[in-house]
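Model: You mentioned two targets. I'll fold them one after the other.
Researcher: Yes, keep them separate.
Model: Target one:
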Amino acid sequence: MYSLKVIRLVVGLVTVIALLFSNGSVFSQESEKSLYERLGGIQGIALVVSDFMDDFMEDEVIFANPEVKERKTSEAKPYIRYGVISMVCEATGGPCQYTGKDMKAAHDGLNVTEREWDRMVEILANTLAEHNVPEQETQELFEILGTTKDDIVFQGGR
């Protein structure tokens, strides 16, 4: 189960993304649209993911993990960015098709800790907030993200 802090961070991130894509408008008329559309389509998703990846790939907490540091290199960054964009696009109802590894395989051997997961959520929440994504869209996005946690976070000790 997610801590209240993590849930609040996720909700904040979704809010930022939604505001970014709505240009600050109210989303009542937008509720019939897919999350993909409410996030601004591929352009909006790509912008937010790009900014998120820039912060994520430079974060001291994330890269204190030696396995992450070894595999998440600057050379790998464009591929990771593309994968995250296509995954978010597909997961939110867009036309993209994610063709990368499943989350368990992609994170196998990285030994991602609960602390690192929480830090990633915090970075994403901050990015969404910077882009003024509305609360509803932020929450929906974090609900999707939450379904991947068990496949990403290492359940053993480090």
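Model: Target two:
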Amino acid sequence: MSLNLSNEIDYKNWNTFFYDTFEDFFIERKLKNKLEVKKYLYNLKDSAKTLWRSYRSKIVEVNYDDPLIQEAYFFRYCVLYHSTIFKVLNFVKDFYRPQTDSQYLEYSFISAGPGSEVLGFFNWIHKNFPQELETYNEITLYDKSTWGIPRKVITKALEKKLSIFEGYRINSIHKDIFEFSYDLDDTNQKIVLFQNCLNEILVSEGSKEEIFLILQKISNSLVSGGMLIFIDRANYSHTFEFLNEVETRLKKESFTQIFNQDYLSQINESRLDRIEIPELIKNNLFTGESGLKLSLRNEIICKIFQKK
């Protein structure tokens, strides 16, 4: 038997994220047929439970360098985050100003993880503002972990999406949040997105003021109409307080906060449609016991600052 998942009974109903990545993931994993896929997913259960328990603690500590933790993350959270960025951007679609007068644009994703939000962002741009992709695009994913197969598979899907346009480059930079800001000097940033990382960095002593200095550099690097986006988990009070302070400071820097509370409430009340998730995952990995229930809801805090 050869691996071919397009004959799955629910294939046409898969979420876009899995439609773009699911089969390629198992090909990269060198699995040859569906029986091997089922066995692999079954054996991933312990790592999926470990990851789930880590996010239940007050201070999140996850070994993102463990390949099996990375792969459990890919199946449990990537589809959720891909869907979330799509929903967030739809609410601010009328504010988005596509740049067609620049020789190149840059897009930076901080704590990019495997890159699910990156793929979601460019799927959204491709659908709504493809003219912006006609210019040369420099796309950079910053993360302190390398993310192995999940990053490789998502990058491959992104390359397919962008291949019909004139030019682009995708960079994977192995740096933590306190090291990347110097890379932004003399750049032409359209989007800088911080994703699901603030809780982990704000627990470091003295990190808050250092982040504000980084945000100053970012504000200088963004083009007019460019966006600084924060999407993070909603259940950490210090994250909420930090972003409110960011808003106060950026209002003095010619930025407008364009994502309102009503948008946030609608996103936090929504769930993924279960039929969009491949039956293979539901039947062999997320089978219902503690720690093995697929995350269908992503309660977030989000702020989007647009440069005037």
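Researcher: Noted. Anything on target two?
Model: The beta strands are 104-110, 136-143, 168-174, 189-195, 222-233, 255-257, 300-307.
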